[in-house]
Amino acid sequence: MPQGSSQSAHRVVAIVDDGSNPFELGVATELFGLRRPELDGLLRAPWYEFRLCSATPTVRMHAGFFTLSDVAPLEAVEEADTVLVPNRPDPETPPSAPVLEAIRSAAARGARLMSFCTGAFTLAAAGVLDGRRATTHWRWVEVFRSRFPEVQLDPDVLYVDEGSVLTAAGSAAALDLGLHVIRKDHGAEVANTVSRRAVFAGHRDGGQRQFVERPVARRVEASLAPVLEWAQERLDQPLSVRDLARKAAVSPATLHRRFAAELGTTPLAWLTGERVRLACLLLEKGELSLDQVAEASGLGTASNLRAHLRKQVGVSPSEYRRRFGHRFRRSASAGTRSA
């Protein structure tokens, strides 16, 4: 459905609390709160309706550099489809009772809950992470585990998607999780467009490690970037890890070490993820059959396409095309005009 349709917007409400980190607040505002003229013609549903709320009229931000005022009262959470919870610069200081109750009430009625960085402490304190996988900033892993042993903490990933509850590791991982949510809600092309405006990498897999040994190569020729670009231009070809190693002029074992150091993942996982993302874009365009999409993306067969898409995106190729396909949008728009 095009932007500006009668369909109601998905409401995202971010709770701010004393000590909240302004970076995570800025990420939420950037991804969900800005007007998006660059998405005209791409959206099937209206963009998000974004609000800030707090249990107090004035909120003193982290380190006391500034305060926020005139934000909505905490009752705004009652109308939210997605609730972003405040992070805790000092995670050992518990959130306020009204904030915890608002989160519990949102969870009970089925709202989606998200945390950035140490916001996982807030979700855990509210009891909504019990028995679930979650992640938080690597610096606070042991503190988290000692306080919330019933949570299945995964300390070595960027974010965890448990369906109705999602957690991101550190500050930069908040961007990764936010773009992941946009991709789930609006499709790969929309998420890529948003990431370009933010001048941020379009996708880092949630399963990538939080901390990599060498996030920035000291020399351009030491970086994996040329190999990655070479592979991205040939995803329809039968590339293997050995092919990538040959292009990088290293052994497969060395390539695995470099991928772990620079990207926090394996060559095969990266290659599969790139192929799935290409398949999503091709499905959105709606011009190829499933067999042709599988071949053009290097996934081989429609059966492989279905298996990988279900694993990484959570839906079948047909359902993905129905939700995000351009052809469907055009026919729906034409039907609306003729009516």
Based on the model shown, name its key terms.
disordered C terminus; 339 residues; 2 domains; disordered N terminus; two-stranded antiparallel sheet; Arc Repressor Mutant, subunit A; seven-stranded mixed β-sheet; Rossmann fold; globular; alpha/beta
Overall geometric form = globular
- List low-pLDDT spans: 1-6, 206-221, 328-339
Helix content: 40-55%
Proper CATH architecture of the largest domain:
3-Layer(aba) Sandwich
Largest sheet: 7 strands, mixed
Report strand %.
5-15%
- The CATH C-level class name of the largest domain: Alpha Beta
Strand order of the largest sheet: 5-2-1-6-7-11-10
User: How many independent structural domains?
Assistant: 2
Q: Please work out how many helical segments DSSP would assign.
A: 14
What is the CATH fold-level name of the largest domain? Rossmann fold
Which structural class should the secondary elements be placed in?
alpha/beta
CATH homologous group name of the largest domain: Class I glutamine amidotransferase (GATase) domain
Structure description:
With 339 residues, the chain is an alpha/beta fold. The protein folds into two domains: 11-197, 3-Layer(aba) Sandwich (Rossmann fold), CATH 3.40.50.880; 220-326, Arc Repressor Mutant, subunit A (Orthogonal Bundle), CATH 1.10.10. The chain is 44% helix and 11% strand. The chain has 14 helices and eleven strands. The strands form three sheets. It has a seven-stranded mixed sheet. A two-stranded antiparallel sheet has the order 3-4. It is globular and about 60 Å long. The two termini are 15 Å apart. This is Transcriptional regulator containing an amidase domain and an AraC-type DNA-binding HTH domain. It holds the Pfam family DJ-1_PfpI. Residues 225-323 form the HTH araC/xylS-type domain. Keywords: DNA-binding, Transcription, Transcription regulation.
